[in-house]
């Protein structure tokens, strides 16, 4: 991960060339290692590479990385995705039909992939669009019980461990599940958490406090593939209003895998504290 001095999310400097690879990876739920691999094979390159080797990405690139992730979940190879990114609508539908036939022939149980492929053909369930609303609210101080820091591949396992520890201690959380996301973290950017009553202490979990203050928030509807758009919305709002952000970002899950198997039904709120 990059250091805070190179992270646009905590700065409001119009001269910054874009998002560092660490920030871009975090808001799009993809590893920096994978972004470097995409750059190496020519699939998805940063908008700018400085002489010191630092990679920077732009807001305009968020929809493209979301599309790449969706194509991967459909079962397309990186070589096929490279073709899809520059293909016409007719070619995309042709390749989608071919991929559906391959899945049937191989008898692969990929219900989610088939649903995404149907969306590419224009016959599937359409995710709820984001309303693009930014809310500014005053939030009280909140005490959290947290698991250890995890990487993006281990978030679900982290939540399982967290709720197992709470159940063993007979502690009932006071909130929906939360994910703390910090692009400035040195190694692993994510920490699973729940709100707890003041004074609750468990030796197996980490206590953490969210400070009182002004928070901005927005909602994301649907799978996490396109969640980078919501993060970008918050970051652009803060920059436009010349506000600095206090890490971490906070994801709150109103509807997730616990309640539905259809990722298009997911509802996620993202918030972050602003400095006074």
From TrEMBL:
SUPFAM superfamilies reported for this sequence = Probable bacterial effector-binding domain, Putative DNA-binding domain
Positions of the HTH merR-type domain: 18-87
Q: Name the UniProt key words of this record, in alphabetical order.
A: DNA-binding
What top-level branch of life does the organism fall under?
A: Bacteria
Pfam families per record = GyrI-like, MerR_1
Check the record and name the SMART domains matching this protein: HTH_MERR (SM00422)
Q: Could you identify this protein by its name? A: MerR family transcriptional regulator
Q: Which species is listed as the source? A: Levilactobacillus fujinensis
């Amino acid at each position: 991960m990059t250091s805070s001095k190179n992270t646009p999310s905590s700065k409001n400097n119009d001269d910054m060339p874009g998002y560092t690879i660490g920030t871009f990876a975090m808001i799009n739920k993809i590893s920096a290692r994978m972004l470097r691999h995409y750059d190496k094979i020519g699939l998805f390159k940063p908008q700018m590479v400085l002489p010191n080797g630092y990679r920077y990405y732009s807001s305009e690139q968020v929809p493209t990385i979301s599309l790449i992730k969706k194509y991967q979940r459909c079962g397309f190879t990186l070589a096929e995705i490279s073709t899809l990114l520059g293909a016409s609508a007719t070619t995309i539908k042709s390749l989608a039909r071919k991929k559906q036939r391959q899945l049937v022939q191989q008898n692969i149980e990929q219900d989610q992939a088939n649903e995404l492929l149907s969306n590419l053909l224009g016959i599937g369930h359409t995710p709820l669009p984001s309303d693009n609303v930014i809310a500014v609210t005053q939030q009280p101080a909140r005490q959290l019980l947290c698991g250890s820091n995890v990487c993006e591949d281990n978030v679900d396992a982290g939540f399982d461990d967290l709720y197992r520890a709470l159940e063993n201690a007979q502690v009932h959380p006071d909130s929906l599940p939360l994910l703390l996301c910090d692009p400035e973290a040195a190694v692993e950017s994510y920490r699973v958490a729940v709100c707890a009553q003041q004074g609750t202490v468990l030796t197996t979990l980490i206590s953490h406090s969210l400070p009182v203050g002004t928070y901005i928030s927005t909602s994301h509807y649907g799978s996490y593939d396109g969640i980078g758009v919501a993060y970008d919305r918050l970051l652009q709002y803060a920059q436009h209003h010349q506000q600095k952000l206090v890490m971490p970002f906070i994801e709150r899950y109103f509807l997730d895998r616990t309640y539905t198997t259809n990722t298009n039904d997911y509802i996620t709120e993202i918030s972050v504290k602003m400095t006074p």
